[in-house]
Design goal:
Layout (H helix, E strand, L loop, with lengths): L25 H35 L3
Keywords: Membrane, Transmembrane, Transmembrane helix
InterPro entries: DUF6126
Pfam families: DUF6126
């Protein structure tokens, strides 16, 4: 029998994912997730700022 299909041990160091050049492989995918999360956080703050500005402008013109 071959040990190529043997399961990984439950504890111990995990091997680093291999970057095979595909879109979803290796470290590039992890970096892409962080970049996307950063863009979403910045976008949400801009949206929240615009909503607060609308409430401020609407509140100052209210009689």
């Amino acid at each position: 029998m071959s040990d190529q299909n043997a399961p990984l041990p439950a504890s111990g160091p995990r091997p680093e994912p291999v970057d095979d050049g595909s879109e979803g492989g290796g470290r590039r995918a992890s970096k892409g997730v962080w970049v996307r999360a950063f863009i979403y956080v910045i976008g949400f703050h801009i949206f929240a700022g615009l909503v607060m500005l609308l409430f401020y402008v609407g509140g100052t013109n209210h009689h």
